[in-house]
Amino acid sequence: MADVVLTEIHGRVGLIRINRPEVLNALNNDVMDGIGLAIDAFEADEAIGCIVLTGNEKAFAAGADIGFMKEFGYMDAYKTDFITRNWERIRTCRKPVIAAVSGYALGGGCEVAMMCDMIYAADNARFGQPEIKLGTLPGAGGTQRLPRAVGKAKAMDMCLTGRMMDAAEAERSGLVARIFAPEKLVEETLAAAQTIADYSLPAVMMVKESVNRAYESSLAEGLLFERRTFHASFALEDQKEGMAAFVGKRKADFKHR
Ligand code: CAA
To answer: Considering the entire predicted model, what is its pTM?
Structure first.
């Protein structure tokens, strides 16, 4: 059996590639377990500062594997903790994870992309939550993360009609951070990831944690969290180095401490 999740290391960046091209990278347990193991390894590795998750040019992922779940009963889904057991690892990763999306990101594919900290897309990317066409609904966070990304009107439109959104509309709507030509997507995403990975890792983690608070709390609570975290950053050796380097007109040499 082909390895359904491939990993590579580029400098301080860990690349995870979903590899089931024959089914447009449909997400089954092997894929989601594989992504989880890859994140475990990259997160434990001090030499990795940022993670990129991608598919192939035709598909990031066309959703959860429909063949696998089509005969599920409620007990199968409930007792196996379907989705939660092995899909939530991306969300708990403390290092930044960038989704590099080319082609289809549908259903669970769109949801996995949205679990990442940001999405870079190729201009051929297509996003959608087509579960309504299957007689069900997004089950990996689509009804929650899509409205937060694109607002209620577009999220309702996408989830209720099942239509796809192209890369330009996705960028306009706030779902996608940047768009590249398909052949440049991984290279450009790795370059951005390397930029992030070269900064102080604890500072990067503090930024990620603080931005994510914007989704979990009121503005007052979020600002308090940010302020306390900012104060805590003065305990970093890298903060001393970063500011000294600026004042000394030299490049900072971060030690990720
Ligand atoms: N699960 C299983 N197999 C899938 C799949 C999926 N989600 N998506 C595509 N495939 C398979 C197809 O069955 C086909 O396999 P065969 O060659 O063996 O027939 C192969 O991938 C290629 O697909 P198509 O022939 O359909 O390719 P296309 O170019 O004509 O169409 C597409 C592309 C529009 C993406 C179409 O494949 C499609 O609509 N896929 C399903 C998308 C979908 O409904 N996703 C949501 C799944 S439910 C979910 O994700 C729930 C959740 O929230 C967690």
So the answer is: 0.97
